[in-house]
Design a protein that fits this description.
- The chain is an alpha+beta fold.
- It has one domain.
- It is built from 3 helices and 2 strands, in the order αββαα.
- A two-stranded antiparallel ribbon has the order 1-2.
- α2 packs antiparallel against α3.
Length: 80
């Protein structure tokens, strides 16, 4: 399994010497990939805003913070 997002979201459970592996839905994997790509894009936008205009944009930062919380919540709730 070379996809690290799919691997991180995969559940493994061992019961009575049997290992069961539950793979995540492909829509969830694509959603997480999209959220990570948007977070990277917004971070690049914030950096360019700082370099060009020399001011902090709080709206971009709040979007980055919200997406980071969403991605973290997905990883935490999927593993339990």
């Amino acid at each position: 399994m070379t996809d690290w997002i799919k691997k991180a979201l995969t559940k493994t459970k061992q019961q009575h010497n049997q290992l069961t592996i539950t793979e995540p839905d492909t829509r969830l994997v694509y959603g997480v990939k999209f959220a990570i790509a948007i977070t990277i894009s917004l971070t690049a936008l914030e950096i360019s805003h700082l370099l060009i205009l020399r001011t902090w944009n709080s709206e971009i930062f709040s979007a980055i913070t919200g997406l980071a919380g969403t991605i973290t919540g997905i990883f935490i709730t999927q593993k339990t």
